[in-house]
Amino acid sequence: PLRSARGCAMEAGRRTKAGRRVARRPAAVDAKLKATQLWLAAALLLAGSLALPALAQSGPLPDPVDPLKRPETTPGRLSVGVALGYDPVSGSLFDVDDDGNPYTDTFAVHAFAPSLTLNYAISERMTVGAGLSARYHLEQTLRRYTPSDIRYLEKGSLALLPRASLAYRLDPEGALDPTLSVTLYKPWAGDPAAHG
């Protein structure tokens, strides 16, 4: 028997909708499977990281670290230090501009300071060092003269600050372990220090 054109179109539409429903299911199943795999990988990584220290401590335990005593200096050893500093500041102030118009500033300052330091122990008492810091200073300000007159101001600056240092331990075996140090900063300002 021959079907009408309308009946054939309806049948094709039902098949297409059913096909779409079937096509959606594997994507959802794949997403759940991937999420399960990620959770399993994270659990295995955590379990492995907890098990390794237990396996590594099968021998005798090392002596505890005394936080009040500096570590011993090994002559000829080069040490590298990397640091990232971030110093956010925010606030508000009231002032008057050059034309005598009062305004209120709401500001935020972001100061980023990554640094790299190299230290070389010449002897058990003397260490020389060199370092480089990059300081990026970003200041963002909303200046309000009136509720309808608000201005956005932004300024930033970048500075590279090299430094060199020399440290001398006066009595490494003493209880206080006093150390004298001198650091030269760009633009070549000196910073002597004594600490114990």
Strand-helix topology:
Blueprint lengths: L4 H52 L21 E19 L5 E20 L4 E21 L2 E21 L9 E7 L3 E7 L1
Antiparallel strand pairs: 1-2, 2-3, 3-4, 4-5, 5-6
Which features does this protein show?
1 helix, single chain, alpha+beta, 196 residues, 6-stranded antiparallel sheet
How would you describe what is shown here?
- The protein is of the alpha+beta class and 196 residues long.
- It is built from one helix and six strands.
- The protein has one helix at 5-56; strands at residues 78-96, 102-121, 126-146, 149-169, 179-185, 189-195.
- A six-stranded antiparallel sheet has the order 1-2-3-4-5-6, with no helix packed on it.
- The longest helix is centred in the N-terminal third of the chain and has 52 residues, at 5-56.
- A hairpin with a 2-residue loop joins strand 3 (126-146) and strand 4.
- It is flat and about 70 Å long.
Class from helix and strand fractions? alpha+beta
* Largest pleated sheet: 6 strands, antiparallel
> Could you say which overall geometry the principal axes of the C-alpha atoms support?
flat
Percentage of residues in helical conformation: 25-40%
Order of helices and strands: HEEEEEE
Tally the beta strands: 6
Unreliably modeled segments:
1-6, 16-25
Rg estimate, integer Å: 33 Å
Mean pLDDT: 78
Helix tally equals 1
> Approximately what portion of the residues adopt beta-strand conformation?
over 45%
Q: Between the first and last Cα atoms, what is the distance in angstroms?
A: 104 Å
Strand order of the largest sheet: 1-2-3-4-5-6
